[in-house]
Amino acid sequence: MKRRKFFRILRLIIGLILLVSSVDGNWWEISSPLVNPTNLYDICPQIINNHTQKKLSICSQPQGILKAMVMGAREAITECQSQFKTRRWNCSTVPGTGRFPKALRIKSRERAYIQALTSAGLTSAITRACARGEVADCGCDPRARLMPSKGWEWGGCSDDLAAGEKLGKAAIDRKSDDKRDFDVIVDLHNNEAGRKALQKQVQLVCKCHGVSGSCTVKVCWRKLQALNNVAKSLMERYEGATKVKLSKRKKWKPAGESVRKPTKKDLLYVSDSPNYCEADESLELLGTRGRECNRTSVGTDGCLLLCCGRGYRTIVRMEEEKCNCRFEWCCKVKCEKCIVRRDIYICN
Ligand SMILES: *[C@@H]1O[C@H](CO)[C@@H](O)[C@H](O)[C@H]1NC(C)=O
Ligand SMILES: *[C@@H]1O[C@H](CO)[C@@H](O)[C@H](O)[C@H]1NC(C)=O
Ligand SMILES: *[C@@H]1O[C@H](CO)[C@@H](O)[C@H](O)[C@H]1NC(C)=O
């Protein structure tokens, strides 16, 4: 075997063993770029044989679902990074590994958000894979066609979210023997909150058929919307997340007296967040030194909040920009290139 190929495979196997040992609670670590969703399944049998003592629920998933898990987690991480772009912790992964920092093992608000969003991402990815015929146990929603319609007909393939939820739940929710563990109960609640947020994202889409654009026949089906909406709505739940503590009989209750009782759609956390301001090697956190901030904003992207009171420095960057654009008949816009001076603010 060629040396380079050998090392690539070795890296893949090590990555897979690392992730498999942390799967279940942190199943989303399969989103690592080290893992190629197409040959993940080929490698699984070897890992199962060598670690027979350990139950590797992830490798027992059918290939279609395994692939959807990888894709769903990747999509969720992209959405998380766009929602947290301006926050002290920007949802970044540990450089070179693609996995989240150890800080995410703390049952914080941030963990609750990731838990819910990856659960929704997984469910959405499985549901869409079902509609494409990539998963054996599911397909299009047969019940959609039984619902009443007015002025249009059912057609096409309706996304079967209920089936996706069932398969997603089986893939990531831990088994009932773990349910005595308080931490697991909180994770399971947040997984469910993610699926609940996804339920609002099934919408009717229609297409017109008829001569030259007329709508003689209108055909409609139910389609899951992009994960972006879920990421946004979970952000509101993140802001209003409820801190809980262990109550009698292995259940949770709100940690404060005045806190309203959270619903199934709310996110739960157990511990306060770590300090995302300063770098912390043991938690694999980078801190906010060197982050770009906005001098005039009073929001999370503002230098005041983002730099955690350490102040900021200004650097001047010369940037090329399109300028003096003219419209030319017909139909072009011609621009010149100008050098503009831009002030950039960087956290100390
Ligand atoms: C599993 O064990 C066999 C024999 O001990 C070894 O050749 C193989 O490389 C191992 N595979 C992995 C993925 O560790
Ligand atoms: C997040 O912030 C770190 C610095 O703390 C930076 O290196 C990284 O590129 C940022 N990542 C994203 C996804 O914005
Ligand atoms: C900085 O924040 C202000 C106020 O929120 C906003 O109007 C402006 O567009 C922001 N600037 C940049 C570069 O994002």
Automatic annotation (TrEMBL):
UniProt cross-references to InterPro entries, sorted A to Z: Wnt, Wnt6, Wnt_C, Wnt_CS
One GO biological process term: cell morphogenesis
Role description: Ligand for members of the frizzled family of seven transmembrane receptors.
Keyword tags: Developmental protein, Disulfide bond, Extracellular matrix, Lipoprotein, Secreted, Signal, Wnt signaling pathway
Pfam families found in the cross-reference section: wnt
Similarity comment: Belongs to the Wnt family.
Gene Ontology cellular-component terms listed: extracellular space
Gene3D superfamilies, alphabetized: 3.30.2460.20
Protein name: Protein Wnt
Cell location: Secreted, Extracellular space, Extracellular matrix
Signal sequence, renumbered to the chain: 1-25
Domain of life: Eukaryota
